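User: Can you model how PXG sits in this protein?
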Amino acid sequence: MTESSQAEIGRNYDAEALIADDLAHHLHPFTDYKALAEEGGGRVITHADGVYLWDANGQRYLDGMAGLWCVNVGYGRRELVSAAAEQMLELPFYNTFFKTTTPPAAELSALLSDLTPASFNHVFFANSGSEANDTILRMARHFWHLEGKPEKRVIISRHNAYHGSTTAALSLGGMEAMHGQGGIIPDIVHVAQPYWYGEGGDTDPEAFGLTAARAIEEKILELGADRIAAFIGEPIQGAGGVIIPPDSYWPEVQRICRKYDILLICDEVICGFGRTGNWFGFETFGIESADFITMAKGLSSGYLPISAAVVGDRVANTLIDKGGEFFHGFTYSGHPAACAVAIKNIEIIRREGLVERCRDETGPHLAKALKTLEDHPLVGETRSRGLIGAIELVADKAARKHFDAPGKVGTICRDHCINSGLIMRAVRDIMVLSPPLVITTQQIDEMIAMARKAIDATAKDIGVM
Ligand code: PXG
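Assistant: Here's the modeled complex, given as structure tokens:
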């Protein structure tokens, strides 16, 4: 469907009635319910095509966030709809418990083994990134138990990491506000993040990358390597504000994990499926020997919920040879329609060369376009890899100083973006972008032009311009 025919679709939704129902009955994720009610409700997004969304009032938005970092192949893909519909007619559901499989689940497990490095040959399916990380946490601890080292239980993560919202996943994550609501599970510890712009001070970025990696080693030495099961990290922290580590960081993390025999978990929920200009973020950052890969989001471009814990041979062989029954799984693990969509989604990414296009054309174009914003008095830094980027709004550019009330300026800028037709997220005062991989260079220019206008309007609002 073309963009114009989508825009012309008269959906005739009654936006007011929908917002009233929603306000009365819908508890949204990550939402201040009272504030939403005071504002009289939010937007109703009704349809989408390519990189554009429309709301119930007919306003068009360029979706600079690919939904929620996930619609990698863009909206309106009939092939994905057909893959789901055909699979639903043939077999809408069957489980993968009790020695059973389905054609799409078997096929997708082989496809993911093929797509990942040679040491990855087994896949456990779930429905969300959170569930995949829960799965990996259980597998990592179970692995060490089976290896006769049950005391190796502690998982090391980073402050400001995001690994999901179930109790295990939020414990793995390093978001204190989440920890504060219900607490975290034991034997998970958090160390420094590799956030040079915010925390690097006068240190040179590469030296800072090594220091941040060595915080992991210090924690290992403090607790004892015989207690540490695994380290988990996103190659680039997405929800934390697109924290791109210095190039020195990941090779050093890998060295430390190898030295102390600690499993390495790469959470590729955002970075996977082309986002950073390679199929996976671990390729972009030179990580060669991970033990687990978490996948979700771009795996199906968000068309249906599906995630995967991809398990390296070392762990998989132990689970298979010595593990007996693994008491774990979800009703919808390997859901046939979701697997069928993921298979077709990967076919589209390959056929259209979206990973190469991100690496060679659109990624470099985004980096250049972002750089043009650095002359702005509010912009302290822009950074990106492939099609994931960030704009740091700061109080003092020279001193790399953030605003005293974190989040206020970012929210103002976010609202200007939305009002002018651009979906750009604010993480505190970091504006983040992660558009669909089908975005064209012209649309990138359109996106950055809208971003500049919003930043100008923000500067006026706070009296800087
Ligand atoms: N790992 C990473 C790296 C993620 O970004 C998850 C795990 C959890 O996935 P599920 O499917 O359980 O949500 C995520 C999810 C945000 C935002 O505000 C980011 C995510 C989810 C919701 C909001 O940036 N990332």
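A couple of observations from the model: Residues 68, 128-130, 133, 162-165, 234, 238-239, 267, 269-270, 296 surround PXG (CB under 6 Å). The chain is about 40% helix and 15% strand.
User: Helpful, thanks.
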